[in-house]
Here is the input.
Amino acid sequence: MKVRNKIPPFRLILKPLNDEAANLPKFKWASEKVGSRHQLGGTPTFIQQEEWPDCPSCSNKMSFYGQLDSLNDEFVIADCGMLYVFLCFDCNETISIIQSY
Ligand SMILES: [Zn+2]
Here is the structure.
């Protein structure tokens, strides 16, 4: 089924809002790209196979809203994973999925 509301792609660049955020330690071992894959709209860059949820209310395919990356070794999502957020603009339902290595 076609996604009805596809948001154009934006890369999200993190802008620290205080000193703690500005000085947050980086990953020790993760590859360079981990921590910079934040994105709004566009197509999700799934780490594993595509997982695209249907809305629990209307059963239509949900819109991809964005993906949020792991931050560092302390705030890591599973194994250098990401959080994918989907929503239905009609029903205001949302589903988030975690994928990791
Ligand atoms: Zn819906």
